[in-house]
Amino acid sequence: MANVFFEPGEQRAAKVNNLFSRIASHYDRLNDLQSFGLHRYWKRRVIQLACPQPGASALDVCCGTGDLALALAERGAEAIGLDFTSQMLAVAAARKSKLQAPSSNARSDASPFTRHMPRLAHFIRGDAQRLPFPDNSFEIVTVGYGLRNLADWETGLREMQRVAKPGGRLLVLDFGKPDNPFWRVIYFGYLRLFVPCLGLLFCGNASAYAYILESLKHYPAQRGIAAKMRELGLVKLQLLNLLGGAMSINYGEKPT
Question: What is the value of pTM for the model shown?
Answer without folding.
Answer: 0.85
